[in-house]
Design a protein that fits this description.
Helix content: 55-70%
CATH topology of the largest domain: Heat Shock Protein 90
Number of helices: 11
Strand order of the largest sheet: 10-12-13-15-14
CATH class of the largest domain: Alpha Beta
């Protein structure tokens, strides 16, 4: 009954099922992420196209404003010429047209002062400002700096100050508001897309959105960020009236960036969850196995107690009836052996009593006992090297280990071959090598041979080597492993115990 093979099949089945579930989950998540990513990219594309169209609209609006500006400037020039003519009219000239030009002015602000610099009256000022002397005084200063006043020397003298058309001033304000609105909406409407608007030098930041302050305040970091953005998307070039060329840099949204890493993050989380779950269930499983081991061992020791007592009584009876001493001696050896086996099982699950013993003596004792009870076609050899071979061991449990290794070796050789035990010192450890000339173990199974349920026999539970490893590593603090194995040539198991 190969429990290990069945367990391995179930492990593979569970692993394959988990991989399929993980694969389907990751595929579905990635598919959703890609769809959202496509939608985000489409939004960014539409946004960038809208920016370009609006930039073209602003440029077109500016050209219209320039035309209106030119018309308003022409009106101002025409008005000045009319006043000049009126100030010094040619002989026999009809001034009706000139007067009409002057009085048709509804947009150009005018301030009339006499020669004593007293305000006579105003024209085309905002209604709410007509009586505001501080506003009129500041406006006068502005007019003086911009345009040469018109002076009438006759009739006591009149000085006329004028400015650019009020409509033109309003147009400039509207144009500035339009540009500011364009810049603001360009950034605000970018939604989650990081945006940086820079001037023609690419060093001055006009506006930014969803970009870290540390980047905006550090020229080196800013240059790197702009280079990264330019690599992701070509910057949009716009020509803003009176401000010249500007560039809009942008990149994928924060959400889109997160979506790109979402499947990877999900895979990591699933992996961590599976590892933690495996460790938890593995701990519970080992604890449960330990309880089963201990319970089975205690029950076995209990069950062996009754027939062992009976056998001891029968041996005493045979001795009293005069049976040959050699027969009684062999029977006593087997009874003692059963007693030691019972003692072994009773020690499972409790802390063994370790004693400082010579490993060579312990191995020799059990080796001699096994030689007489194993096929005569197996040749036994034991080599003991010089050195400190003393270690803390439990003789009954260590003998059990040696018995398992020897019996497995004999089974591997099918009752015929060479069995050798080599004992020596390597550094701070005593090594015990048990070698056979059997069929060997495949390299891929060097570690799995110690797992419960693993066996190459048609009959068996596959518990011997698992128990051996438990006794050496948990009870003696040593190590046991396959030192060497070659198919068709044999196997060597090595035990390491710390020398004292």
């Amino acid at each position: 009954m190969n429990l290990y093979s069945n367990k391995q099949r179930w492990k593979l089945f569970v692993l394959a099922s988990a991989l399929i579930i993980i694969g389907i989950t990751l595929w579905y998540s990635n598919d959703i992420a890609q769809k959202i990513r496509a939608e985000e990219q489409l939004k960014v594309k539409l946004w960038s196209e809208a920016i370009q169209k609006r930039a073209e609209l602003v440029s077109y609006t500016q050209s219209l404003f320039e035309s209106l500006k030119e018309e308003e400037n022409n009106k101002a020039d025409l008005l000045v010429q009319a006043y000049d003519i009126l100030n010094d009219p040619p002989e026999e000239m009809d001034l009706t047209f000139v007067s009409k030009v002057m009085w048709s002015n509804k947009t150009i602000p005018l301030l009339y002062y006499n020669s004593k610099d007293s305000l006579l009256f105003t024209m085309n000022l905002p209604p709410e400002k007509k009586d505001n002397r501080s506003y009129i005084d500041s406006l006068k200063q502005e007019m003086m700096t911009r345009n040469e006043p018109i002076v009438f020397t006759e009739g006591g003298g009149v000085i006329i100050y004028y400015n650019e058309s009020r409509r033109f001033s309003e147009l400039k304000a509207v144009m500035r508001d339009l540009i500011n609105s364009f810049i603001s909406e360009t950034v605000i409407n970018s939604a989650s897309v990081p945006v940086i608007l820079v001037d023609s030098t690419k060093n001055k930041i006009v506006r930014a959105q969803r970009v870290e302050e540390a980047v905006l305040n550090d020229s080196t970091l800013l240059a790197k960020r702009l280079a990264r953005m330019a690599q992701a998307n070509p910057p949009i070039q716009i020509d803003l009236p009176e401000d010249g060329i500007h560039y809009i840099y942008y990149e994928d949204s924060v959400l889109l960036t997160q979506l790109q890493y979402f499947p990877v993050a999900q895979l990591v989380l699933i992996g961590v969850f599976l590892i933690v779950a495996y460790l938890i269930f593995s701990t519970f499983r080992k604890a449960e196995q330990n309880q089963v081991w201990v319970g089975m061992a205690k029950e076995t020791a209990h069950q062996l107690g009754t027939p062992l007592s009976s056998l001891m009584a029968w041996v005493s009876l045979l001795e009293a009836q005069g049976v040959e001493a050699s027969t009684i001696s062999e029977l006593n050896k087997d009874v003692d052996r059963l007693g030691m086996i019972t003692d072994r099982f009773s020690k499972i699950g409790s802390k063994p009593d370790l004693q400082l013993l010579n490993i060579a003596d312990v191995v020799q004792e059990h080796y001699d006992y096994l030689k007489t009870r194993i096929s005569k076609k197996v040749s036994f050899e034991m080599i003991t090297q010089e050195g400190n071979l003393s270690a803390l061991v439990s003789a009954p449990l260590f003998g059990w280990v040696l018995e398992n290794l020897v019996k497995n070796a004999v089974d591997a050789m099918e009752g015929e071959g060479e069995l050798k035990v080599d004992i020596g010192v390597e550094g701070a450890f005593i090594f015990i090598d048990v070698s056979d000339s059997g069929k060997g173990i495949h390299k891929a199974k060097h570690k799995t041979v110690f797992q419960p349920g693993f066996t190459t026999k048609k009959r068996g539970w596959g518990l011997g080597l698992s128990l051996t490893k438990r006794i050496i590593e948990q009870y003696h603090g040593g190590k046991i492993f396959v030192k060497r194995s070659e198919l068709g040539k044999g196997t060597t198991f090595r035990i390491l115990l710390k020398s004292i």
